[in-house]
Amino acid sequence: MLTGRIVFEDDFILAFNKKAGELVHSDREGNESLTELLIPPGTASDRPCSQTDPSPAPAFFQPVHRLDRPASGLVLFAKSTSAFTALSAVSYTHLTLPTKRIV
Question: Is the pTM of this model over 0.85?
Answer without folding.
Answer: no
